[in-house]
From TrEMBL:
Broad class of the protein's primary localization: membrane
GO cellular component: membrane
Protein name in the entry: MFS transporter
Record membrane topology: Multi-pass membrane protein
Keyword set includes Transport: yes
Annotated organism of origin: Aquiflexum gelatinilyticum
Pfam families in the record: MFS_1
Annotated signal peptide: none
Length: 444
């Protein structure tokens, strides 16, 4: 792989092509995040049981992403490259899982479908992060991750609105008790097609740089054969992670605790607090749940526009990544807290607009900071290890962290989960003050 100084700058469209597969990945994540809790509730899950039904997803990410990152660092195929083989494997598995998830007829089946779906998406996701660092010089890292975020924002907005759109087109959004409505099934099917097609587009339009010393890579692979040696090396990298990675880990922990809380509880919190709808088989609940998807789409839409602004800014001037990330997270935290205080449903668009600013920054700035502070030859494994700081807070949340904290600090009403998410995001923002590595915090 070429060194940072030798990498040529890429055009907007080259960066767009190499990141386009994230459109499909985000279709999968948005449908999963916006509607799996709805599926769980439809199949009879109690509100407090929902986080535990999500736990397989972060547990899988904790295992899969470091391994995939490690393997992709050590992979080279003359035709398919280093990261693209993992794109393809993940795309095939994710497409199948996404299509069949809403056809679950029991809670254990839905939880299993979520597990398979999340594991499959993870196989593709982190190599996409590593590809940006592989292909771009440091001066374009912020720009590259922001363009990736722009694509993610588009995917979030469109996918979150798919069940609502299906309903507007005449597809039923209600069904018998315990059956997922056709509007959700159609949305997941469309998402499966987009997921596979967009990742295939990146595979066909993007080339990867070969290793600088292919023979050295072959020798390393020969010397480290075996699963045990692979795990030893991953643990060695974990114990020797750079200081800035640990500091970013604190920011990531509180950021992703907040968003996992949103994905788990936004539907029950908003349908109950704003729409006063609790019967999951009723027309009122299903209309409200469609609306929740629409409001969640707002944070994707705003993140898209915010990323568009950042793409323009970062292509022209150098930015302070730390201060930008801090202010964005605090804005998102305020958006979550405001959900408790609003009285009209349309005000949710304003709340989630603030959340969208935080989301755009979460998907770009931490990776730009990290990629400037780690060994380029270990980019894949470190991007995978960095995911630990995403999945650990989700595991903590799923094991009771959300239920314990919101009831302890605020009260029994489920809407307090959104207040908890807001406080967590504000703590994440302030944690940026501890990051001092200038190479990480500033564009070079």
């Amino acid at each position: 792989m070429q060194t940072v100084d030798k990498k040529p700058k890429l055009s907007f469209w080259q960066i767009w092509n190499m990141s386009f597969g994230f459109l499909g990945i985000q279709f999968g994540f948005a449908l999963q995040g916006g509607f799996m809790s709805r599926i769980f509730q439809t199949l009879g899950a109690e509100k407090d049981a929902i986080p535990m039904l999500w736990i397989a997803a972060p547990l899988t990410g904790l295992l899969v992403q470091p391994i995939v990152g490690y393997l992709s660092d050590r992979t080279w195929h003359p035709k398919f490259g280093r990261r693209k083989p993992f794109f393809l494997i993940g795309a095939i598995l994710s497409t199948i899982a996404l299509f069949f998830a809403p056809y679950s007829s029991a809670l254990w089946m839905a939880a299993g479908a979520l597990w398979i779906l999340d594991a499959s998406i993870n196989i593709s996701m982190e190599p996409f992060r590593a590809l940006v660092a592989d292909k771009l010089p440091d001066s374009q890292r912020s720009y590259g991750f922001v363009v990736q975020t722009l694509i993610i924002g588009i995917g979030t907005w469109v996918a979150s609105n798919l069940p609502w759109l299906m309903t507007q087109l005449g597809v039923p959004n209600t069904a018998a008790t315990g059956v997922v409505p056709d509007s959700v099934k159609f949305a997941f099917a469309i998402g499966a097609v987009v997921l596979f097609g967009s990742i295939l587009y990146t595979i066909l339009t993007t080339d990867e740089y070969p290793p600088e010393d292919l023979e050295a890579l072959k020798r390393e692979n020969e010397e480290s054969k075996g699963i045990l040696n692979g795990f030893k090396e991953i643990f060695k990298n974990i114990s020797g992670m750079p200081k800035v990675m640990k500091q970013l880990g604190v920011v990531q922990f509180f950021s992703w605790f907040a968003f996992f809380t949103m994905w788990s509880f936004a539907t029950p919190a908003i349908t109950e607090h704003i729409f006063k709808a609790t019967d999951t088989a009723s027309q009122a609940y299903n209309d409200a749940a469609d609306s929740v998807g629409n409001y969640l789409g707002t944070y994707g839409l705003v993140s898209m526009f915010f990323a568009l602004i950042l793409a323009f800014v970062t292509s022209k001037i150098k930015i302070n990544r730390k201060l930008l990330h801090m202010s964005s997270l605090i804005a998102g935290g305020l958006g979550f807290i405001l959900i408790y205080f609003i009285s009209e449903p349309w005000m949710l668009h304003l709340c989630f607009a603030l959340v969208g600013i935080a989301w755009a920054s979460i998907l770009s700035m931490p990776y730009a900071m990290l990629s400037s502070a780690v060994n380029p030859k270990q980019m894949g494994v470190y991007m995978g290890i960095f995911n630990m700081f995403i999945v650990i807070p989700q595991i903590v949340a799923a094991l009771g962290g959300i239920n314990f904290m919101y009831k302890l600090l605020f009260g029994e009403e489920v809407v307090y989960t959104m207040v908890l998410a807001g406080c967590s995001l504000i703590i994440a923002g302030l944690s940026n003050l501890f990051i001092t590595n200038r190479n990480a915090t500033h564009d070079i």
